[in-house]
User: Fold this.
Amino acid sequence: MRFIFRIVQKQIIVLLGGPGTGKSTLINELVARGFCCYPEISRQVTMKAQQEGIEQLFLEKPLLFSEMLLEGRIQQYKNALNEPDNIVFIDRGIPDVVAYMDYIGDEYPEYFTKACEDYKYTKTFILPPWEEIYQSDTERYENFEQAVKIQEHLIETYKKYGYELIGVPKDTVENRILYILDKI
Assistant:
């Protein structure tokens, strides 16, 4: 009897893009389809700070906010490695932290860039700014023009760390999901 073994590589896939591009909507749909997904954690960090009396932690203490995000995103990456699923989707990645710090013009410790070098994602899908679906809320304070600038910093940062960005077209949620799954 002959056995054939197939080695399956763990795929940790990031959905990225500026605020309001539809990442969380796609993550929610992927969860509904049974995929292992990790949500964006910045809203959790922001809401926790608001409960402690800091209205906009990112604006008031950007380095602390970014340190908390970096720690959370590294933990998501490590958790993804241990998932039984071979494909794990993550809403935003480690390089997002550096891109946002560059966007606001703040300095950050060397371990931020080291984390971007040490934890590499398998694929990166980028969603374009889309004014028709863009909405501000209590955790998303940027206007659409700022979201476009953030997008530029995200592209620059991910390319700096060697990522090939796969553009996701503006389309229905269903078609965007099919596009992503086809590229995996």
About this structure: The domain at 11-183 is CATH 3.40.50.300 (Rossmann fold). The chain has a mean pLDDT of 88. The CA atoms of residues 56 and 77 lie 26 Å apart. The chain has one domain: 11-183.
